[in-house]
Amino acid sequence: MKAFIQNCRIGVEKHKPYIAMIVINIIYTGMSLFSKAAISQGMKPSVFVAYRQGFATIALAPCAIFFESKKSPPMTFRIFCKILFVSLCGVTLSLNLYYVGMNYTSATFATAMTNTIPAMVFIMAVCLRMERLERNWQGMAKVLGSVVGISGAMVFTFIKGPPLYPEPTLNHISGQSSSNNRTYSKEDWIKGSILMLGANLTWSLWLIMQGPILKQYPAKLRLTTLQCSFSCIGSTVWGAVIERDISSWKLGWDVNLLSVAYCGIVVTGITYWLQVWVVEKKGPVFTAMFSPLALVLTAFMSAILFKETLHWGSVGGAVLLVGGLYSFLWGKNREAKVETEQKTEQIKEGISLECITCTTLPNEQQTEKKEGCPHYQMP
């Protein structure tokens, strides 16, 4: 029995990154489902974002103060303005577009569209000359993955096709259907798709802008807390302008409170730490490889909870999205390996050149130089 427990511990320790990524995607699935439930119950997107970012700020602020109170760099007015701009134009705008679009589409579609973000980031980085495009197999794979992924998003949006399974029949006797069952018109679906693409576009731009800001303000946890707080303030002001009804801001002990608390505390808090830990252990490509898992889980749970009917067009679009994502990630991962091998070869060539140079010096200098050479062995 002890040997079995010991083997289980060793197995868990060995597969911790895999377990962490499964937990992260389960949490993201819950985010899509809870968000859809709150929006469907009538909660306004701007109010939802304001409360979500408020809960996230409350959850992250103590951690930022405790862990980064001493090593955080000084805050200048210029950095403050940059963080404020990125928070309002990136986080606030992206989340508001995302939740408004979710009101016109399904939770499955919202999760599927997030797979276009790596391709959008790559295209923006190439256009801004932050990343170069090589004419090799790796570059071709990234371009192909971007094109296929965006094509999959278009197929998911415009091609519905026949249902994957028989749709649930309505109760003709009472004239009512389940409150969770909702059909979307083509106009609403296209409107929601455009909003979702806009949300992913602004989120991709936000990811691009994180690099320059992190170089000037490398305190990641405090930076995240500041962006959440600025986003909360911006969303509150925007929500107060368009939602002047006080009843829209009231939270009761219902799904609305559970949704904003879950998205703010669990999603922003727990997944942040888990993703940072996994990236340190396995790298960013490893974390992105698991994103289709959230799509599968969301589609399965949406069919059960919200009575959403999957169509063959959606399945085809999802396959293209996932295929494009993996093609892009393969090219990116392969490119990183090639760069690492080239750097290793350059280091070896430098060491060999140093060893050769030390043999051409006079005897006294040659002895001193050889003793510092890593390939020199004392007689």
Strand content: under 5%
**Uncertain runs:** 170-180, 373-379
Query: Which term fits the overall shape?
Result: globular
Q: Which sheet architecture does the biggest sheet show?
A: none
> Separation of termini?
55 Å
How many β-strands, per DSSP? Answer: 0
Note the total helix count: 14
Report the structural category.
mainly alpha
Radius of gyration: 26 Å
Please estimate the helix content: over 70%
Oligomer: single chain
Look at the structure and give the mean pLDDT: 76
Taken in chain order, the helices and strands follow as HHHHHHHHHHHHHH
Blueprint (SSEs and pairs):
Blueprint: H1 2-14, H2 16-40, H3 45-68, H4 77-102, H5 107-113, H6 117-127, H7 137-158, H8 186-216, H9 220-242, H10 255-282, H11 284-288, H12 291-305, H13 312-358, H14 363-371
Structural commentary:
This protein has 379 residues and is mainly α. It has helices spanning 2-14, 16-40, 45-68, 77-102, 107-113, 117-127, 137-158, 186-216, 220-242, 255-282, 284-288, 291-305, 312-358, 363-371. Helix 5 (107-113) runs antiparallel to helix 12 and helix 6 crosses helix 7 (137-158). The chain is globular. The N and C termini lie far apart (55 Å). The relative contact order is 0.18. Mean pLDDT is 76; it is low at 170-180 and 373-379.
